[in-house]
Amino acid sequence: MAAAARPLLSCHDVSKHFGALAAVKDLSFEVFPGDILGISGPNGAGKTTLFEAISGLNPATAGSIVFDGEEITALPPEAICHAGIARIFQLNAAFESLSVRENVRVAAYFGRDNRKIPGLRIGPEVDRTVQDALASVGLTDKDDMIAGELPVLDRKLLMLAGALATQPKLLLMDEPVGGLSPQEIDHMIEVVRRIAAGGITIVLIEHVMRFLVQLSNRILVMHHGERIYEGSPDGLVKDEAVVDVYLGKGASERLAALMAAAGP
Ligand SMILES: Nc1ncnc2c1ncn2[C@@H]1O[C@H](COP(=O)(O)OP(=O)(O)O)[C@@H](O)[C@H]1O
Ligand SMILES: [Mg+2]
User: How far is residue 165's CA from residue 192's CA, in Å, rounded to a whole number?
Assistant: First the structure.
């Protein structure tokens, strides 16, 4: 038997308690290099809390998280970022009065290594990283625009460019298409495909199931902090628990039709 690839990210029995509430409960899963793992589930299921734990912003209260062979469960967020995990947030986060280029520059400069002596090592490699990140999301022509003046889609793309500028191995995206039009969602699907094709492993949280099933090779559905489904997008729409507590019959039939139309 061929040796299985080592997971890039493993969560073992991860829990996050807020007082008596178990927002995430004994959750275990693995993400392999090249995966696009989609995570969905009802509001309050614990999806964002899981990302908080992985990225170190609000650490797990039990369990262990291993990234690229290293235990990261209790590391501070900047160490996790430098280890190679980048995250984009549900709400837009940017330096409003800085330009697109300046925003990505900050991410490229601070996101990669520990800058113990700021200012000493800014150089052409930072600029190259910024160019590449802007090109990956299609913002090259808007690099002089002020972040606060961008339309919604471009703000999301900017946040994504900032994440890419940290040169991550793993990208965590929390509801990247919330508030976007169907055409803008299609655009985001293309951008995410391009990023994945460039060798970055991706975990997506999204309610927009069309986005999730078109991109993900595997889907995990959470409910009350626990897994109720993990498997292929095809299996998802046939899964009784998922249809019952989350999708509903109409939506699951529409998704099945969409997948059938897209072909294998
Ligand atoms: N900082 C916090 N303090 C207390 N409860 C929280 C906190 N963050 C999230 N929760 C609770 O944890 C549960 C999961 O929330 P969340 O992870 O945001 O869900 P999702 O992203 O799946 O909608 C919810 O019941 C929410 O109210
Ligand atoms: Mg959330």
Answer: 15
* pTM above threshold 0.70: yes
**Do 180 and 68 belong to one domain?**
yes
User: Does the C-beta of 24 come closer than 6 Å to ligand 1?
Assistant: no
Shared-domain flag, residues 264 and 138:
no
Structure tokens at 236: 């998802």
Q: Which of 18, 47, 222, 223 to mutate to test the pocket of ligand 1 (most atoms within 8 A of CB)?
A: 18
- Atom nearest to 45 CA in ligand 1: 22
User: In the predicted model, what is the mean pLDDT of residues 182-207?
Assistant: 96
89 within domain boundaries:
no
Geometric angle at alpha carbon 7, from 23 and 136, rounded to 5°: 85
Q: How far is the CA of 245 from the centre of ligand 2 (A)?
A: 17
Query: Looking at the structure, do residues 100 and 161 belong to the same domain, yes or no?
Result: yes
CB 174 within 8 A of CB 48: yes
The percent of residues above 90 in pLDDT, for the chain, comes to 75
